[in-house]
Amino acid sequence: MIQVRGYAAHDAHSPLVPFSFERRDPGPHDVQIEILYSGICHSDLHQARNDWRNSLYPMVPGHEIVGRVVAVGEHVKTLKVGDFAGVGCMVDSCRHCSACNDDLEQYCEEGPTWTYNATERGGEQLTFGGYSDQIVVEERFVVKVPGHMDLKAVAPLLCAGITTYSPLRHWKVGPGQKVGVIGLGGLGHMGVKFAKALGARVVMITTSPEKGKDATRLGADEVLVSRDAEAMAKAANSFDFLLNTIPVPHDPNPYMALLKRDRTMCMVGVITEIEPPLSGSSLIFGRKSVSGSGIGGMAETQEMIDFCAEHGVVSDIEMIDIQSVNEAYERMLKNDVKYRFVIDIASLKTAA
Ligand code: NAP
Ligand code: ZN
Fold first, then answer.
1. The predicted structure's pLDDT at residue 349
2. In sequence order, which ranges of the chain are alpha helices (DSSP H)?
3. Alpha-carbon radius of gyration of the chain
4. Which atom of ligand 1 is nearest to the CA of 270?
5. For 334-350, how does the pLDDT look when each residue is reduced to its tens digit (9 = 90+)?
6. Does residue 173 surpass a pLDDT of 90?
7. Which of 129, 126, 45 is nearest to 345 (CA)?
8. Is the C-beta atom of 40 inside 6 A of ligand 1?
9. 7: Cβ contacts below 8 Å, ≥ 6 apart
10. Pocket test for ligand 1, best of 187, 223, 228, 291 (most atoms within 8 A of CB)
11. What is the pLDDT of residues 234-276, one digit of tens each?
12. Structure confidence at residue 310 (pLDDT)
């Protein structure tokens, strides 16, 4: 077994603290990765604090993982020792349902095995995520990261990146379309970058007018402040696609009014109830739809990394030591991060 150091939550109310545990030695199909950087997703906070009522403790969060390959099993083909690699939200799936057969492991009909807050397939052992110094994952669930990329800014691509890239591709966002990205956090700022790189006209739809000063740098053509009723009314019926990343229940109806006829708002943020209720009239008058999307399959995650390498897309990050993770959670709740915290895992060496 491999001895691993990390940070864990032990219940919904206490801060994360240093935690030692073991991982399996790499099997014939496994890749062992020395973790260098781990992004902090809002889902980490939701799960550490049991917002989704399904938390398993102790919990080592982290599903935006980048590191260096230090060992591979004898059957591993795509990675070798010394390569840089990424791990996202899943580490396993059933591999035989229609979703797995279509490279959509995130929709595995038996449920994918999440990188943390889950049990290993066919076992009792909890999975532990990226706030740790080593991880062992089967090759199918590891992507290759080109070494010339800025690795710390690549980490958030493994969740925030793929979660926004996948729906933009699925709904064929491109030139000639006006696309709105709602909520400019870790996911949203990546949504803006991807929509721009795909050739769309991009509007940041935000509750924070001051984020407007980052619009040009992120690639947005316009800023729409969602609390400005007059501006929202003026923008009615003008959007071809909306990507909604708001992490909390909220009234979806004012956003639906922004869509053109026959278009969709894709929800990626709220996993619990959307409230107040979506009005039937928001759908009926204009034949509009609300859709959802979850991360992306492994093949598409590799495609997204390669797209980023080609187009020079990475995340805007603030690096922290692991000792500051609890403070980072509080700042994320206050919407005080531009735009993703990334943990320098080297700081674990000095963790108390
Ligand atoms: P984040 O960094 O905290 O950003 C969320 C943004 O939403 C904030 O920056 C803010 O943007 C806006 N916002 C926050 N509270 C709001 C409120 N009360 N009303 C309106 N807007 C609000 O979060 P994240 O890491 O991007 O994650 C976003 C959500 O996606 C989380 O719930 C996470 O669990 C979920 N998620 C889903 C998937 C999936 O597969 N579908 C994958 C990863 C994460 P402005 O300041 O611009 O308004
Ligand atoms: Zn995430």
1. 87
2. 42-48, 98-101, 151-154, 160-170, 186-197, 215-218, 229-234, 253-256, 280-284, 298-311, 325-333
3. 20
4. 32
5. 999 999 999 999 999 88
6. yes
7. 129
8. no
9. 16, 17, 18, 19, 60, 131, 132, 322, 325, 348, 351
10. 187
11. 999 999 999 999 999 999 999 999 999 999 999 999 888 888 8
12. 97
Among 28-42, 71-85, 164-178, 270-284, the minimum mean pLDDT is found in 270-284
Which residue, 56, 54, 53, 86, is CA-closest to 68?
Answer: 86
As a whole number of angstroms, the distance between CA 12 and CA 297 comes to 30
Q: What is the mean pLDDT of the chain?
A: 97
Model pTM above 0.85: yes
* Closest by Cα among 317, 292, 338, 326 to 13: 326
- Residue type at 309? A
Rounded Cα gap, residues 30 and 76, in angstroms = 7
Cα 96 from chain centroid? 25
**How many helices (H) does the chain have, and how many strands (E)?**
11, 17
State whether the beta carbon of 294 lies less than 6 angstroms from ligand 1: yes
